[in-house]
Write a structure and sequence with these properties.
This protein is 50% helix and 15% strand. The protein has 362 residues and is an alpha/beta fold. The strands form 3 sheets. It has a 7-stranded mixed sheet, with helices on both faces. A 3-stranded mixed sheet has the order 5-10-7. A two-stranded antiparallel sheet has the order 11-12. The termini are far apart.
Length: 362
């Protein structure tokens, strides 16, 4: 075996991957910053739809940020998904006719909790537009909802807005990889012209669509059993010629994902295996590709070390993470590989749980 030839092929392959990553992230940032808000010709009604399971703490931050909004025509519908903490008491403590709380006792067979909660919330919504927010979100100021709507109406008519949110959370060695993946893995500027549904996705933390489009397609009903429902729904929209458009909403939406590193690990554990294929063979291929590209490549060439630092610096700056997080980029990627493997083991053993409820993809 000609090991020199094999080494040259490996280096060439890794170099090509890094060139593709750089082209993708540069194209995505240029695309992201070209978006500009449009004026609102009227005041369309907006339904803000929130799933809540054991979210007492987060709702005490989110709901006040919604109640301060200057936009005149909106409602909030929160579906309590069988919470075992004080979520329902917190919801009842807000005396506002803008907030409607619905209490459930968990999803029926064949449904994932979050998907069922959002589906039920849409049954009670009356807005022209639907804004889906996670319960750990917070609107930044009194005009944030107005700006979100201006961003949405500035998109082409066949679009669904999906937000690049500002992540304010613990475990930033892991959470900083969320925008890194969003900006390096999908070619957002050209996705509408690529005839592959796989290049469509949503960020479930924040997305917006008009009510008619939602009910024409009923995306939650069609993905009742999907743990990674936002990615699946994004692909479903693209299949039906509704194009996910990534918009920078960091000035409008802050996400408080996790309190610390260990909570972040547990949270990402339920999704990492699914993001990487959700089956043993595609997972193995993606795992090897990720490890070669981000973990082992720096040992092959100093140029690859500079490349991964540059990529992480670019996405960290775009997502407003501190330089200290960027300095630890190699550690983030090593931790990501370990997390991917841990997620796979837990899924194979059917031992994934979140917020006191077992997560099953079987």
């Amino acid at each position: 075996m000609d090991y020199a030839l094999l080494d040259a092929a490996l280096i060439s392959g890794l170099a090509l991957i890094h060139v593709i990553l750089w082209c993708t992230v540069i194209g995505n940032l240029a695309y992201l910053y070209r978006h500009s808000p449009s004026s609102l010709p009227s005041s369309p009604s907006v339904s803000i739809l929130i799933p809540a399971r054991n979210e007492a703490k987060n709702l005490q931050r989110l709901l006040p940020s919604l109640l301060q909004q200057s936009y005149p025509n909106w409602e909030v519908i929160v579906y309590d998904d069988g919470s075992t903490d004080d979520t329902w008491s917190v919801l009842q403590s807000f005396d506002s006719n803008r907030i409607r709380a619905i209490r459930g006792d968990g999803p029926p067979p064949g449904w994932v909790g979050k998907v069922h909660a959002l589906y039920q919330a849409t049954r009670h919504a009356s807005g022209d537009y639907y804004l889906f927010l996670d319960a750990d979100a917070e609107l930044s100021d009194e005009d944030a909802l107005t700006r979100l709507l201006q961003q949405y109406v500035g998109l082409p008519d066949d679009s669904v807005l999906t937000g690049l949110t500002q992540l304010r959370s613990g475990g930033q060695l892991l959470t900083s990889l969320v925008p890194n993946v969003i900006l390096t893995s999908l070619p957002w500027p050209v996705s509408r012209w690529i005839p592959l549904n796989a290049v469509g996705a949503l960020n479930g933390q924040c997305w917006m669509v008009d009510a008619d489009t939602y009910h024409d397609l009923e995306p939650h009903e069609h993905h009742a059993d999907k743990v990674l429902e936002d990615v699946e729904i994004g692909r479903y929209f693209k299949e039906h010629d509704i194009i996910p458009e990534l918009v920078d909403v960091q000035d409008e939406v802050h996400i408080h994902m996790y309190d610390d590193f260990f909570e972040a690990w547990e949270g990402f554990r339920k999704n990492a295996y699914l993001i990487m294929g959700g089956h043993p063979l595609p997972f193995a291929l993606f795992f090897i590709l990720f490890a070669l590209t981000f973990v082992l490549a720096p040992f092959v060439s100093f140029g690859f070390l500079l490349s991964i630092y540059g990529l992480k610096l670019t996405t960290d700056r775009a997502a407003r993470f501190s330089p200290g997080i960027t300095l630890l980029a190699p550690l983030s990627y090593v931790l990501a590989s370990a997390l991917q493997f841990d997620s796979a083991l837990h899924h194979w053993r059917d031992r994934v749980a979140w917020k006191g409820r077992r997560v099953s993809t079987s």
